[in-house]
Amino acid sequence: MARVRTVAVIGGGIAGPVAALALRKAGIEATVYEAYPHPAHGIGGTIAIAPNGMAALDIVGVSEPAAAVSWPVHRQMMTVGRTRLELPALAGVGPLQVIHRSDLYRILAADAPIEYGRRLVAAVQGPGGVTATFADGTEVQADILIGADGVHSTVRGLIDPGAPGPHYTGMIAVEGQSPATVPEEAGTMVFAFGKKGFYLYGPALGGGTTFGVNLPHRPLTIAEARAIPPAQWKNTLLEIYGEDSPAAT
Question: Per-residue pLDDT tens for 176-196?
Fold first, then answer.
């Protein structure tokens, strides 16, 4: 097999830049092609990165700046009704690191070679590699093409047009921060399960409570979800979880 020298990575979110940085560390020229015309600064909620994920970020040289803007979760609890259980954890591997997606994206985008406004529409495998065609009419040739373009992946559909697509789970996730405090130690994350949904919460960095709520809801586009006023989301939380929920404050 001929040595791989060039790679086109489709998708400039989190996985794409990480893949490109890792390939470049291995001496392979890799470029990320992102469909949107501008960077995704300020977009997204939080991500909990497990120790093996932090190890991967360390390989590509961004674990230290990522850790500097994240906060550790040393303890995870689960509650179902009145039952409260501590989830087991591996010893000696370090905590989860919770980071805002926009912060992780900013760190990765600063180092990874990303070309914006490149929406993939076709990819053809030839004897010398892959030719990727974008909506603006430009073409790129590479030895290998990697799809890191998310749950609605264009690359997946090009490889296998019959591949099953994503299915709506019947739940919608809402994330936020409340000034209310919860009686939990710093570095604790609690997963609370009920009949209609579940939410997770824990002490926020700098005070208050960080929470995420998963609610039964009809499908919404991102634009539709963002158009709903905060007060309407709060009323929905109150109906499901009650006045005492930190997520409803």
Answer: 888 999 999 999 999 998 877
